[in-house]
Amino acid sequence: MNPNAPLFRKVAYLSALVILAIPIIYLGAPSTKNEAGGKLAQLRTENRLGQADLGAIDPASETIRLATLGLRGIAVTMLWSKANELKKTEDWTGFQATLEQLARLQPYFIKVWEYQAWNLSYNVSVEVDNVRDRFYYVKQGIQYLKEGIGYNRDNPTLLDDLGWFTGNKVGRADEHVIYRQLFKLDEDLNPEGDLTARDNWLVSKGWYEQAVKSIDVGGQPLGTKNPTTFFDSPARSQISYAEAIETEGVFGQLAKRAWQEGAKLWREYGERDMPSTEEFTIALLDLKKWQDEEKKLRAELEAMSPGLESQMKDEAIAAFTSEQRAIYETPPANPTPEESKLQGEVVAAVDVTLGEIAGQIAKAQPDKAAEARRLATGIDNARRRVSSIESNRDVANYEYWRIRCDLEQTPEALDARRLAHDAKREFEEGDLLGAKALYERSFDGWAKALAQFPELPIDSTTGSDIVDVVEEYVLVLNQMDLRLSDEEVADRFALWDLVKANDGQQKFAAEIEIYDARVTGKPIPNPAAPSKSLINPADAIPQ
User: Fold this and answer.
1) Within 10 A of 325 (CB to CB), how many other CB atoms are there?
2) Which of 128, 340, 359, 493 is most buried when burial is the number of CB atoms within 10 A of its CB?
3) Residue 539: closest CA among 530, 365, 342, 79
4) Lowest pLDDT segment from 12-21, 68-77, 112-121
5) Distance CA 500, CA 510 (A)
6) What are the residue boundaries of the structural domains of the chain, listed by start?
């Protein structure tokens, strides 16, 4: 036996270990701040598959001991409880730090990012007094969502939430004027790009577009999101941008282009095929297509046996009992339970279904049975599509926003908004005559613009917005000892019908009454009579 054999074996084993260690080191080297690490670390980073970053958890806490011992579930529960307790005691610094630790332990649990980002931007922000401090927490909620997207790349839910926070929380909060200014100046929220691209509504639109792209291109599931309200978000942010810049005094071609882009995105949204609650997809702009299809197929079915549907209804009515006939001819205003039952029977009897019509045609003309059934099925399919499209158009208020985008692009509407903005500035500077003249020119412009779109409901959001401007005009008149109903003012005012349709709070009730009396030749009420909504000045004097 060779006395050196054990030594040779040891050398061989050691050499094998060294050789095996080389690929292990290459594949498994951990990543650092400056190094990408081994192949496995790179793949984890690329595919967002890394485990919890335990190094970011408080090393002195009970949480890290539980997490390192494999009791991550217990650690997470403790952190959730701690976060809720810190929120109750308004320890916002500790609350935010706890959220950071919680995110490290549950980086792929979407609800963590959703819930806690909402806490920061919506719940915590309103608990502080200074507006800059409030914006700080709004910003922290946005940053928290961005961090969540880093772990859950292309997740449509988080991207959609980020669009909502950036758009609606910054752009519609009570402090939105200051929030929008702070947003534009914030380097953390806008690391790149010029100031014109830093508008919160445009940034919001960008996040919404990424959310849509994650589904269209990335193949991500929509989840529980409503397709109708999910896919309209980019267009709505663009429209909100157009509204916001005009409110801030930006008009002309920039405002027109903003509305044109809004109209374009809204049209593309209407052309999009979206899932519905039925087995088919729908496009909101396909309404007329399916209405025409239903009408065409009905005409074809009617041509197979003219008057059959009416004949079947007449036969059903002829078979009514005396009680059913009485209910049918004179429906009771407040039916009893028995009458309600009879009404149901009557309605069911005269409601001739497509299947019944096709069945009657098949009996009378067996050679046309298959064609009749095909037409009946086609009509039912078209009718269900029409119903689904109409329902979803109502959810999106599609027709209103389509018309609104077209209306706002007209020279008359663009000029009317500019004139109203200038009038308000003149009033603030004390030029009453100048403000009055500008307001009146603005109303003339609105009258011309609205006349081009008679399909726009007069009591729409647009009408309500214009009435807000009319209220500003009335303040100017009051300073000049004038009233909207004064003959020289009322005859010049071009929007009486719009004011009547949108005066839900009866602010203009007295003015409308006087104006209508003058127009119809009735006795004019005493304009000096106090409105019921006014306080008697004597009641306001301390006793």
Assistant:
1) 15
2) 493
3) 530
4) 68-77
5) 11
6) 5-47, 67-279, 284-400, 410-535
